[in-house]
Amino acid sequence: MSIDDRKFSILLVDDEKSIRITISMLLEEAGYEVFTASNGLEALSVLREYVIDLMITDLRMSGMNGIELMREAHRIDPTLEVVLISAYSDIESVVEAIKAGAYDYIIKSFQNEELLLTVSKVKEKKWLQAENQAIKKRLENRYSSGDYVFRDPKMGIIVEHLEKIAKSNATVLLTGESGTGKEVLARLIHKKSQRSGQRFSVIDCSSMAATLLESEIFGYEKGAFTGAVAKKIGKFEAADKVYVL
Question: What is the pTM of this model?
Answer without folding.
Answer: 0.55
